[in-house]
Amino acid sequence: MNETIIYGLGGLVALAIAVLVVIKPTRPAALAALGWLASIGRRAWWWLRFRLTWKSVAREAGLSKRRTKRVKRMGVGEESIEKWRDPRLKRVKTSAHSVTLKVRTRRGQALADLEAFAPKLAATYSADAYRVFPAKRRAGSTVMFELVMRDLIKTPAVAAKPDPRMQTETVRLGRRQSGKPFDLQIEQRHTVAVGASGSGKGSILWGVVGSLAPSIAVDAVRAYGIDLKGGMELTMGAPLFTKIAVTGEQAVEMLRDFVAIADQRTEELRGHSRNHKPGPGDPLYLLVIDELASLTAYADREVKQEAERLLKRLLSIGRAVGVVVVAFVQDPRKEVIDMRGLFTQTIALRLRSAMETNMVLGDGMAPFAPAHRILKGAQGTAWIIDEDGSTDRVRADYWSDDLIRRVASLYPAEPELVTISDAAPGDLPGMQLSLTDGGSR
Ligand SMILES: Nc1ncnc2c1ncn2[C@@H]1O[C@H](COP(=O)(O)OP(=O)(O)OP(=O)(O)O)[C@@H](O)[C@H]1O
């Protein structure tokens, strides 16, 4: 088997040399052919490397078990022989940038032991990132390791103008580490994104609000915002919001309105439908909270207590009736993340320690979704936990101030609904904004 591979690789190298000799390597087609050959060669090399070194790596990492057996040999007498039991490498699959291993536990081994091996495996093969996820078959004894050998999301991407079609179910935020699109479900979900200062929370925030802009313009989504840092972040795209609260009292009032809407919808939907389906005139209510801690940790005691009570109620009743929350947190301390269990999906941007990662994503998650290892310069990069419990690394596209302003003026919320609180810094230069006094509905 190994000989076949070596001959195969030799053949590929010979072919590459032949291509170089016969055609001029400056022509685009020749360059493309060479690139293709290089990619095939690289994948073959990865495949070979993992196949050949798996057992020794597993043994050095303590995943294998050694048994010594005493056997009797004719003429030699009794002799001890060593036998290894290794976890079985069932499949090695390569792509242009990653290697996926399917591994089965050896007899007497716990699946958790194998899963905990992922960081050592990634370090041994110098992988840029890794993730562990359950195998489709025999998930009780088989695990999949995806090692990213060439990081596709290392370079940032800039967001484009949103798809003009009405979309309320999911939004496209960027890319997964596999290169596939990173879509975030909005309907039926409460989302919390946690990340240190400068980790790129803004690109998640505007990815959500900006991508929903065409739906906001036709009143299929009504976006409200709480921004107690003087409205600095949200007023950038003010026309997209029906209302922005910039003081603790306004925030409490807004939360009260949201709870009332959720209660009313629950009443209306009871007996008819279990889930609200948004559409023009019957919108999805979206509450965006920039810096949750400013409301639940640093505000006045009264505001804090009332806000926490209302938010907890909203998080427990809103989802099915089309009233959802997307909140952002910088400091995942206990009192802030007290509500973590009520959020149905979590995005962990760059965090400061493995302890914070465990706090945000759940106990024991730090080795599987190491958000504390995200580099400072990789803003917008985050770890998420998918529906099936597997983790994945993603990178949100960057939303520039200019793009936010352009999208906001292209798809403003229906003017008669918009109310900007008196204390808000007002409309931005160059933006058309109708202000009325009516308050939110
Ligand atoms: N997706 C991204 N890709 C590349 N660069 C980004 C991305 N998102 C943000 N940045 C860069 O990182 C900087 C900080 O981003 P951002 O303001 O969104 O961080 P933040 O987490 O909201 O910080 P804070 O909590 O302090 O407001 C931006 O000014 C921008 O230069």
TrEMBL record:
Keywords: ATP-binding, Cell cycle, Cell division, Membrane, Nucleotide-binding, Transmembrane, Transmembrane helix. The keyword ATP-binding applies. Gene3D superfamilies: P-loop containing nucleotide triphosphate hydrolases. PROSITE patterns: FTSK (PS50901). Residues 179-358 form the FtsK domain. It comes from the Bacteria. InterPro entries: FtsK/SpoIIIE/SftA (IPR050206), FtsK_dom (IPR002543), P-loop_NTPase (IPR027417). ATP binds at G195, A196, S197, G198, S199, G200, K201, G202. One of its GO terms (biological process) is cell division. The chain crosses the membrane at residues 6-23. Pfam families: FtsK_SpoIIIE (PF01580). This is Hypothetical cell division FtsK/SpoIIIE protein.
